[in-house]
Specification:
By secondary structure, the protein is α+β, with helices and mostly antiparallel strands. Helices cover 57% and strands 15% of the residues. The protein contains eleven helices and five strands; from the N terminus they run αβββββαααααααααα. Strand 2 and strand 3 form a beta hairpin. Helix 4 packs parallel to helix 7, helix 5 runs antiparallel to helix 7 and helix 8 packs antiparallel against helix 9.
Length: 282
């Protein structure tokens, strides 16, 4: 509380507490506190007014927390300021957890990474990133059923997050993600777009590995349509993976067209260039 920005701007630092405290519960260390205390700084002197209770987890919950002039005029309400600060701390802890999970997954410790993602989701069940990373880790473990479930959830959650919840959480057989995602590219939102494309690409690979070729073609078509405008480096590979999906359907001509497109976009895709019968840069 003493480090809150509105208070420091008003009275400066360092902050000292006056000798007198008026109220109930404060001096007796009770769970309910109603108090007024004087705070002094190099710029001014103010009065802090508070009504608070101690919750079951040992944290103070403030119903009233404001600073006033010695004459009683309100200067700032600190309840909102504390809420923002708390959210920033929680967000930092969440990002650290996700970072630990990514680090473990990067080392091939997918089960340990999934444990972290599960812990995050236990506290934040609507967290799209933990859901997405869990799906990708499950795919690496060839747990295709879990991976498909988590990735479908993550794709819809990400769209919902990026459209302020205006998108219906459609995880059906033929979701309409593509048009919405194109707008991310036009807005320059490369970060969310790339994360979304990686999740969709992984879902497509699940369909490829489990020989659901129609779903495979549909998913990589969505990846291509959604990422072309952003010139995402994932797009050439998506053309190649879709070509592989077509081969499962014995649609050789379609497969060769896709492979040629992939090779033209990135000649380092050796397998695509071989499929297309074209030379590579290696």
């Amino acid at each position: 509380v003493l480090e809150s920005e509105p208070l420091q701007k008003t009275i400066g630092e360092p902050v000292t507490i006056g000798a007198w405290v008026e109220g109930e519960g404060f001096l007796r260390s009770e769970d309910l506190v109603s108090a007024r205390l004087t705070l002094r700084g190099p710029q001014a002197e103010v009065v802090m007014v508070m009504n608070a209770k101690l919750d079951a987890s040992g944290n103070w919950e403030f119903q009233v927390l404001r600073i006033e002039s010695p004459e009683g005029a309100e200067i700032a309400d600190l309840v909102d300021a504390i809420g923002v600060q708390k959210l920033m701390v929680e967000k930092g802890a969440l990002l650290a957890q996700l970072g630990d999970g990514r680090s473990l997954a990067g080392k091939g410790s997918y089960l340990e990474a999934i444990e972290i993602y599960a812990d995050v989701l236990a506290e934040h069940p609507e967290n799209a990133e933990a859901t997405r990373l869990w799906g990708i880790a499950a795919y690496r473990l060839e747990d295709y059923e879990t991976a498909e479930e988590k990735l479908k959830m993550a794709l819809a959650m990400m769209v919902s997050d990026e459209t302020d919840g205006d998108y219906a959480m459609d995880t059906g057989e033929e979701p309409s993600w593509g048009i919405i995602i194109e707008n991310w590219a036009m807005d320059g939102e490369v970060g969310p777009l790339d994360r979304w494309l990686e999740a969709a690409e992984t879902l497509g690979l699940i369909y490829l590995d489990t020989e659901r070729s129609r779903r495979c073609v549909e998913t990589f078509t969505t990846v291509i349509m959604s990422g072309e405008a952003s010139a995402s480096p994932r797009i050439p590979k998506a053309w190649y993976q879709r070509a592989r999906c077509y081969l499962q359907q014995d649609m050789v001509d379609h497969a060769q067209v896709g492979a040629r497109t992939a090779c033209a976009k990135d000649s380092n895709l050796v397998e695509a260039c071989k499929m297309a019968g074209l030379p590579t840069s290696r």
